[in-house]
Specification:
By secondary structure, the chain is an alpha+beta fold. The protein is built from twelve helices and twelve strands. It has helices spanning 36-46, 142-149, 160-168, 174-181, 228-237, 241-251, 306-311, 330-346, 421-429, 432-446, 452-465, 467-476; strands spanning 23-25, 59-68, 87-96, 111-119, 122-129, 195-196, 201-204, 210-219, 257-266, 292-301, 324-325, 409-411. Strands 2, 3, 4, 5, 6, 7, 8, 9, 10 and 11 form a ten-stranded antiparallel β-sheet that branches. A hairpin with a 2-residue loop joins strand 4 (111-119) and strand 5 (122-129). The chain is globular. Keywords: Heme, Hydrogen peroxide, Iron, Metal-binding, Oxidoreductase, Peroxidase.
């Protein structure tokens, strides 16, 4: 590995002591706002592109509704889930991750799967992907990761050297990379893929009892993926293939639908489960925590104006409603800040007043002024709190459930570092034909990498996941498995 004597610093020149782990209260957190290096990285990253989204720039959206099909009030007091048959309007945005606004729909990339529920208690945003895991598990690494997916600053070309260098130095990415390089890496359409909340969240019921949950949207259209050659052909002939397919399906009353399920874990299991349940690079076994049906999502109305609805739609995993709360997931903790901050920069401080983002519930707060304030700005009402003039007041019954924290405030990683079991299990679940395509996709992606050092390092990760897996990739690259793996 190459070395240098340059010390990483903040933008004001102070040396950075840890660029891999955000500062948390104990190993599980939560993340501390005093980690100014983390906040600076995320805030600066959100302002690197104007005006399209830094990530998830290319997307399509639709309106629809969510209908509850199972009574889960024993687990959450969220009112939009309070009774079977209850319907809540929603808006969804699908997207690719790395490409620009004009990029092709059919590239190999995760797909964003962001749902905005317009509930009577305010908007609830569930902002996930079409995969149950992610490449990294700490938000402090997110700007660096996305930089590798973007263009080289000199050539302005995509850079496989950066992609594989980062992944090979971040073994936690192995599970997501395996999924990305599999058949699921190129969905046939937005309608023919699943969606996931990916993170672990907390549900709280009316009695103040809590559980951990993970969300799974299962497509009723069935899983379908694209052959790599057909995907490449479509990228040239119809780069808006997925956008067109979604619009036409809804226009022709072929309304896409998904069943929503959750996995539910008792709070105490988080301390003993064989993988850290807050690590977004890992899944929970469905044998341990089976899927429980929640409801059904149906998309039945196209936007009338792409910019006003799809482009100006803003989603944040920090938009909760009573009964749904955050977990100590370090990637989620960073996103709670970063997403809304991105919207304040890209769309404006008053982005939630736009029609596509405006809650259907009444809004009462003391936020005033700012660019593009299009409502009456609170009129002449009281503009501070506390006050004795009848202004809106807090409701203590809606405070988040208290939780214990322990340990030293320090930049530390997760306690568990097994990055190989789950991708190895996934490989062994595939048919021989699926394995062949997976290996071919990986080999094809890694061949342009210039340094054998990077290739060997990544081969070592594949080999640790499954020896056959690593050997086949090594052979495809004309290399050998590194000694001592």
């Amino acid at each position: 590995m190459s070395t240098n004597n340059k010390t990483l610093t903040t933008s004001w020149g102070a040396p950075v002591g840890d660029n891999q782990n955000s500062m948390t209260a104990g190993s599980r957190g939560p993340t501390l706002i005093q980690d100014v290096h983390l906040l600076e990285k995320l805030a600066h990253f959100n302002r690197e592109r104007v005006p399209e989204r830094v990530v998830h720039a290319k997307g399509a959206g639709a309106h629809g509704y969510f209908e509850v099909t199972n009574d889960l009030t024993g687990f959450t007091k969220a009112k939009f889930l309070s009774e079977v048959g209850k319907r809540t309007p929603l808006f969804i945005r699908f997207s690719t991750v790395a490409g620009e606004l004009g990029s092709a729909d059919t590239v190999r990339d995760p797909r964003g799967f962001a749902v905005k529920f317009y509930t009577e208690e305010g908007n609830y945003d569930l902002v996930g992907n079409n995969t149950p895991v992610f490449f990294i598990r700490d938000a402090i690494k997110f700007p660096d990761f996305i930089h590798t997916q973007k263009r080289h600053p000199q050539t302005h070309l995509k850079n496989p050297n950066a992609v594989w260098d980062f992944w090979s130095l971040s073994p936690e990415s192995l599970h997501q990379v395996t999924i990305l390089m599999s058949d699921r890496g190129i969905p046939a359409t937005f309608r023919h893929m699943n969606g996931y909340g990916s993170h672990t969240f907390k549900w709280v019921n009316a009695e103040g009892q809590a559980v951990w949950v993970k969300y799974h949207f299962k497509t009723e259209q069935g899983i379908k993926n694209l052959d790599v050659n057909l995907a490449a052909k479509l990228a040239g002939e119809n780069p808006d293939y997925h956008t067109e397919d979604l619009f036409n399906a809804i226009e022709n009353s072929d309304f896409p639908a998904w069943k929503l399920y959750v996995q539910i874990m008792p709070l105490e299991d988080a301390n003993t489960y064989r993988f850290d349940p807050f690590d977004v690079t890992k899944v929970w076994s469905q044998k341990d925590y089976p899927l429980i049906e929640v409801g059904r999502m149906v998309l039945n109305r196209n936007p009338q104006n792409y910019f006003a609805e799809v482009e100006q739609a803003t989603f944040s995993p920090g938009s909760f409603v009573p009964g749904i709360e955050a977990s100590p997931d370090k990637m989620l903790q960073g996103r709670l800040f970063a997403y809304s901050d991105a919207h304040r920069y890209r769309v404006g401080a008053n982005h939630n007043t736009l029609p596509i983002n405006r809650p259907q519930a009444e809004v009462h707060h003391y936020q005033r002024d700012g660019q593009m304030r299009a409502d009456n700005n609170g009129g002449g009402s009281v503009y501070y709190e506390p006050n004795s003039l009848g202004g809106p007041t807090e409701s203590p019954q809606n405070k988040p459930l208290p939780f214990e924290v322990s340990g030293e405030a320090n930049s530390v990683g997760y306690d568990h570092d097994d990055h190989y079991t789950q991708p190895g299990d996934l490989y062994r679940l595939l048919s021989e034909e699926e394995r062949e395509r997976l290996v071919e996709n990986i080999v094809s992606s890694m061949k342009p990498v210039e340094k054998d050092e990077i290739k060997h390092r990544q081969i070592g990760h594949w080999y640790k996941a499954d020896p056959e897996f690593g050997q086949r990739i090594a052979e495809g690259l004309g290399l050998s498995v590194p000694q001592g793996v």
